[in-house]
Amino acid sequence: MKANEALRRHRRARRLTQAQTAEHVCAQVLAATGRDPELDANWISRLERGAITWPSADYRAALCAVFQVASEEQLGLHPRGSSDPETPHPQAPPDPAGWATTDTALSARLARYAAETNVNALVLEQFDVDVARLAQDFVSRPLPLLAPEIRSVRAEVSRLLEGRQHPSQARHLYVLAGWLCGLAAHVSLDLGDRAAAATHARTVVQCAEIAEHAELRAWARSFQSLAAYWAGDYRRAVELAQAGQTEGRGPGRGTIKARLLSLEARARAAGGDSRTALRSLAQAHEARTAAEPDELSGVFSFPEAKQWTYTGTTLLTVGGPEQIQRAITASNLAVELYHAGPEGDRSPGDLHAAHLDLATAYLASGEVEGASVKISAVLDAKAHTASITIRLRNLAALLGSEPYRDAQPAVDLRAHIREVTRRPALASTPTEP
User: Fold this and answer.
1) How far is CA 66 from CA 23, 43, 88, 243, 254, in A?
2) Least-confidence region, from 24-28, 98-102, 229-233, 297-301
3) Quick one: CA dihedral 228, 229, 234, 240, positive or negative?
4) How many other C-beta atoms are found inside a 10 Å radius of the C-beta of residue 195?
């Protein structure tokens, strides 16, 4: 009995123990045949001692796969009674029947591998339902109740993506992961954590690219534009809103195009480009008339009330008596639409934004008392998003300028705003910043 030094050399070259080698061989046999042979280190030891020189065909194929060699001879394997494998001997002619058997086994193995998946239609359907519910609840439910569930569902989808799925199932999971990262981005931005929000948003873009999902990619750009706007980078906000309209196959057929154009209009107005801002605003309202239903509702949709809130903000920023009056009309319409709609679709944060625009518009018209009335609903709220806090501080700064600085109603209102904005900007009812 002669030891199989060739097999021992291959094993040591790969720094495998005999037990580890046995595990790899078992895995190869299981993948190829569906049968678990339960081999152990003792079996590898017998091979290396030469007690076994010619195991069955399945085991030989598995050993060749583990050590990535082309033939059994390279591993020192040979039938009993044949010549020493270390001694050169004439190559036997190929066996057509044996080749056909091996080739068929490879195809069968590929078929089994391709069929493997860790999800099914019911699992994906349940995730679809969960994401749709979270997107809807995000509009009006308290953030502390939603954030843990968003994190939990996102972790489940991420874990599944680490396994194996059919290509269509993988794309579906990436779309789900993208929407869930979008919710996480909103949570971060509402809490004022822009760095975390930016990371989540980039992940949304990556998921959309992998899944080739136009609506998800356009929404991601709209969120990035939104974040740039609140960071004061209006030029970047415009660029991102435009990217959402032109990248890939475009923004899709829902309300996302109206959202992107509204974001562009608001950012252009803030950057001082009033003429283009008004043109983009008009295009946004034209886009709404052609919009089809959104894939997801709630925070991922762009309701008419929100669009009129954007319109009021844009017109107010453009300024001038005519545009301020139009802004008042738009903001009042936004408030009416929010109150007229279902309570579950009513975003307290968006409603606060519309009230703040009205207060600013009345203040621009010289009506300090009217502004105080409109802002009272905002000041009485228990908590605000980071963006509402920014709006309140901007209004306080305006009240501290001429001609309001010394007027007693303006002094009182400014003091009240400062008292409210000292609280942490924790979004109990998060919305778009």
Assistant:
1) 10, 15, 24, 49, 52
2) 98-102
3) positive
4) 8
- What token pair was written down for 432? 């778009």
In tens, the pLDDT along 201-217 reads 999 999 999 999 999 99
Look up the pTM and report it. Answer: 0.69
Pull the structure tokens for residue 194. 């822009």
Q: Are 218 and 250 in contact (CB under 8 A)?
A: yes
CB 218 within 8 A of CB 245: yes
In the structure encoding, which two tokens stand for residue 182, read together? 């979008």
Task: Provide, for the chain, the percentages of residues in helix, strand and coil under a 3-state DSSP scheme, each rounded to the nearest 5.
Answer: 70, 0, 30
Task: Report residue 242 CA to chain centroid gap.
Answer: 20
Cα angle for residues 350, 354, 356 (degrees, 5° grid): 110
| End-to-end CA gap in the chain | 79
At 359 the three-state DSSP class reads helix
Q: Which residues contact 102 (CB under 8 A, 6 or more apart)?
A: 61
pLDDT band at 245 (very low <50, low <70, confident <90, very high): very high
8 Å CB contact between 237 and 228 = yes
Phi, psi of 20 (to 5 degrees): -65, -40
Q: Which amino acid is at 304?
A: E
Q: Which helix (H) or strand (E) holds 265?
A: helix 256-270
Distance CA 430, CA 349 (A): 6
CB 195 within 8 A of CB 386: no
Q: CA 217 → CA 153, 156, 314, 359, distances in Å?
A: 21, 22, 25, 35
Which amino acid, one-letter code, is at 364?
A
Residues 413, 418: Cα–Cα separation, whole Å: 9
What tokens appear for 361 in the block?
Answer: 């518009």
Could you give the CA distance from residue 151 to residue 128 in angstroms, rounded to a whole number? 15
Nearest to 369 by CA among 408, 334, 396: 408
Q: Coil, helix or strand for 253? A: coil
Q: Phi first, then psi: what are they for 308, rounded to 5°? A: -70, -30
Q: Are 291 and 304 in contact (CB under 8 A)?
A: no
Residues with Cβ within 8 Å of 62's Cβ and at least 6 positions away in sequence, in order, are: 24, 25, 26, 28, 29, 32
Residue linked to tokens 């069955």: 56
Q: Please name which of 124, 141, 123 lies closest in space to residue 133, comparing C-alpha atoms.
A: 141
- Phi/psi for 370 (5° steps) reads -65, -40
**Res. 243 pLDDT band, cuts 50 70 90:** very high
